[in-house]
Structure formats: C-alpha cells, structure tokens
C-alpha cells in the first residue's frame, strides 16, 4: 500500500508540474506585453525603478497566470521530489518560446524546433530517472533538516551572494549585464523552494488534524517564502523589462534549476538513494535540456530552415573551393533584417557584436 501510495503521489506531482509550466510560460508573455505597452506610453520602466506596471491589466493577468502556475508548482513539491519538479520547468521555456512567436513576433527557426525536441527528451529522461527523497513526514523532521550544518552553510552563502548582488553589483551592472538580476532570482529561488517544501508538509499535517499552526516554524517558513518570492518578482520584472524574453527565460531556468538541485541535494539528500544509472540519467537529461534551450535561443536571430539549409548546401557544392579548402562565399540572414552578413567579411572584423539582445532589437551595423 505504501508503494502504491508513493506511486500515486508521484503522478499527481508530475501532472501538477506540467500544468504549472503551461501557466508560468504564458505568464512571461503576458507580463512582457504589459511592460511593452507601458514603454510605448512613456511610463517609467521597471528596469529604471518604475512601478507603473501595477496599473497595467496585462501585467496583472500575467501575475495571475504565474500565481496559478506557482500554486500548482507549490502543490507538486508536496507530492514529488524537487529534483523532478524543478527541471520540468523547462516546459515553461517551450511554452514561452512558442507563444513568443505568435504574440511577440519572435520567430522560431530550425534551431529552435530542434531545441524544443531536445528539451522534451531531456525532461522525459529526468522523469524516468527521478530520485526518491528522504521521507519527511512532520515539521519536526523538517526542522532537523534545516539546522543541518551543510544546509546552514549553503543558506548563509546564498544570502551573502544575494546581498552583494543587490546592493553592490546590481546598481552598477544590472542595466547592462543580463546575469545580475537573473542570478539574484535564482539563488533566492533555491531558498524559496525549500520553504515551499516545508509549507507543503505543514498543509499535509494541517489536513491530518495536527496543531501545526502553533509551531513557530510554520510561520517562519511562510514569512521567508513571502520575502523570497517578493524579491524574485521584483528582479525578474527588471530583467524582463530590460532584456529579451527569449533570453531571460532560458538563462533563468538554467541558473534557477542548478540552484534548486544543489539545495535539494544538500537539504533532502535525494542523490544518496539513487543508483549510478539513475544519477547518469538525471544529469544526462538535465544537460540535454540545457543544450536544447541553448539551441532554442542562441541562434534565434539567424534565419535558417530546412529549405534554406538545402539551398545553402547546393550553393556550397557549386562554389569553387579556395586554396585553404573553404568555399568562396556563404551568407546568413538575420531575422528581422534585410541585410545579409558575408562570412568572409566577418573574418576581417565585421562588428557582429552590434546585434543587440536588449528587448529583441537589432542594432544597425
């Protein structure tokens, strides 16, 4: 009966994690459209410290969608291990990429489609090799985990890094470096997941009739979660306002998932109960997801499809080889631009770095 119940909980957690990804992926699009509308109106942008988005209904719709997704994600952590639930957030990246192509005019090329397939395959692999976490049935067990020396050192390190980024690095480089705000969200997110896991246990005990509301740990976890989520929302809004959604989403996923997997391994010791084949499968699935996300977004400004690839191959076959064995002329077209880039010119210093990733625009060469 215990094994059947555990399997039943696993599938509930899996279904909740998938539905969470759908809502969260859609929330990025709604929030971005709301922020873009405010930018067109001339309001002070979130990246510059403005809070005009609080009056934009599209932003609130995105926040509501994210709230539903996070609620489903919250419930998923109560039924399934964090090492399973968190990596499935890659599906939100796929949802965001597909919806961006329809609502934000961000095209999905051949690399993007291959990236989607790889991300789905990686997620499936991680589901198959998902670990079993240590049984934590009460807040007392959770309290013992939270005061473990390994987790205390990890949490202290995370808080110090977050404070340095918020008060020292952020004001200087946050507007120009996409990693600053995303790393803040990611490291704080590792602690928020721990709070979510603890609150999931609290709710289970509450429904079982235990007096958990009298336990100070319940309120500490709740207040810590509110503080962590508020910080994440604030800095995620800044990142979305300044940089392209299709860049923020995958980079945030990679850093956030890595932080959560590290925290989960320290706090819940999920990896100690895994066979070597499951460890390899889990890591391989995660790396596959990262590669898929990289393909999905690294080449998003290159107009490439199966048809253009076939034409390029035929051109290369017809072109006479140069003395060094390279073809004489190969061009690639940037999405949203009528200008082709000559690869011969790139070798002698065309300023390809002038392609701006901020808000998805392409700066003139």
TrEMBL record:
Keywords: Membrane, Transmembrane, Transmembrane helix. Belongs to the NIPA family. It is found in: Membrane. It is a multi-pass membrane protein. It comes from the Eukaryota. Its main location: membrane. It comes from Scleropages formosus (Asian bonytongue). This is NIPA magnesium transporter 2. GO terms for molecular function: magnesium ion transmembrane transporter activity. One of its GO terms (cellular component) is membrane. The chain crosses the membrane at residues 12-30, 57-79, 85-105, 112-131, 151-171, 178-199, 219-236, 248-268, 280-299.
């Amino acid at each position: 009966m215990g094994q059947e119940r555990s399997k039943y909980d696993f599938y509930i957690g899996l279904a909740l994690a998938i539905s969470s990804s759908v809502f969260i992926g859609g929330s990025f699009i709604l929030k971005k459209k709301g922020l873009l509308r405010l930018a067109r109106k001339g309001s002070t942008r979130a990246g510059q410290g403005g809070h005009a988005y609080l009056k934009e209904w599209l932003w609130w719709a995105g926040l509501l969608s994210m709230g539903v997704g996070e609620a489903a994600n919250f419930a998923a952590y109560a039924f399934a291990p964090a090492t399973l639930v968190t990596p499935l957030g890659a599906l939100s990246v796929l949802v965001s990429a597909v919806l961006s192509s329809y609502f934000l005019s961000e095209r999905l090329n051949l690399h993007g489609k291959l990236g989607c397939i790889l991300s789905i395959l990686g997620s499936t692999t991680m589901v198959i090799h998902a670990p079993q976490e240590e049984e934590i049935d009460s807040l007392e067990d959770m309290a013992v985990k939270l005061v473990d020396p390994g987790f205390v050192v990890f949490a202290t390190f995370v808080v110090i890094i977050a404070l340095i980024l918020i008060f020292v690095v952020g004001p200087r480089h946050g507007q120009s470096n996409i990693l600053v705000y995303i790393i803040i969200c990611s490291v704080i997110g590792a602690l928020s997941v721990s709070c979510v896991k603890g609150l999931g246990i609290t709710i289970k005990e509450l429904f079982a009739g235990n007096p958990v509301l009298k336990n100070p740990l319940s309120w500490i976890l709740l207040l810590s979660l509110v503080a962590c989520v508020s910080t994440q929302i604030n800095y995620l809004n800044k990142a979305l306002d300044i940089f392209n959604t299709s860049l923020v989403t995958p980079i945030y996923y990679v850093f956030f998932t890595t932080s959560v997997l590290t925290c989960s391994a320290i706090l819940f010791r999920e990896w100690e109960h895994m066979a070597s084949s499951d460890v390899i499968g889990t890591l391989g699935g995660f790396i596959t997801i990262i590669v898929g996300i990289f393909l999905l977004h690294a080449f998003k400004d290159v107009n490439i499809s199966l048809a253009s690839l076939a034409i390029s191959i035929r051109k290369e076959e017809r072109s006479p080889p140069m003395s060094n064995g390279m073809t004489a002329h190969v061009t690639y077209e940037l999405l949203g631009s009528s200008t082709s880039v000559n690869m011969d010119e790139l070798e002698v210093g065309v300023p390809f770095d002038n392609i701006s990733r901020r808000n998805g625009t392409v700066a003139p060469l």
